[in-house]
Amino acid sequence: MANVTRKYLIAGNWKMNKTASEGAELVQEINLALGKQTDVGVAVCPPFTALENCARSLEDSNIQLGAQNMYPKSEGAYTGEVSPVMLRSLFCTFVILGHSERREYFEEDDAFINEKVLAALQSSLKPILCVGETLEQREAGQTMEVVKKQLAGGLEGVKADHADNIVIAYEPVWAIGTGKTATPEMAQEVHKMIRDELVAFYGETAAEKIRILYGGSMKPENASELMDQADIDGGLIGGASLKAKSFIELVEIARAK
Ligand code: PGA
Q1: Which of 9, 151, 210, 241 could connect to 234 by a Cys-Cys bridge, CB 3.0–4.6 Å?
Q2: What percent of the chain clears pLDDT 90, i.e. is strictly above it?
Q3: HSE-up of residue 244 (Cα within 13 Å, Cβ side)
Q4: Which is the closest atom of ligand 1 to the Cα of 175?
Q5: Is the distance from the beta carbon of residue 203 to the nearest atom of ligand 1 less than 6 Å?
């Protein structure tokens, strides 16, 4: 265990993959293997259209459900959008916010992401706030500055008493879906900086409780070393969460720590 005050969290980000029935099938397989264990937090984040089926398959399971996005209003004339209240009604615990794909393809900025973080917390959803630099920014030596800005922007107005409900995911954009992973040392350097920022925002006690996940081509072959780092508290898993076998293996690696 990286730290006794934090339980590892392995969260699957399915992105735009799996129909409702395919999702239920995948979740059933994962649930059979992991639904009873409580050593490690496990969550799956299917697309909206698969949430209901997955929620049904996860009744009485310790596996939690998350969404991949939401709109920061509880209801109203926002065609095509989904509210935090709707996600809660489908038994979602988590919601991924500020993923780099949303920042890039849908031009979401820190202010909009911050609105979502606040709205999620208000509806008792736990935000998984994603931050991370592009390759260009890393090569220009801007990693720390970029991640700090995304973190401060995303968390603006979030009070220390909500700290327990926040999860941060550090996902270097150049490592997402590319097969390139940050080395454990590179990742830890950023995770440590994030922890220090959280200490500055919320104080040591609260900051020590916040889980900071690594994301970006994490798979059974590289997960152990990453999770050995002091401030890496699990993973946000894309590709390797789409097959029961690799996802289960990742959870087992975390359980063995
Ligand atoms: P990946 O995706 O594991 O496929 O790199 C991670 C993510 O984007 O959350």
Answers
A1: 9
A2: 95
A3: 14
A4: 5
A5: no
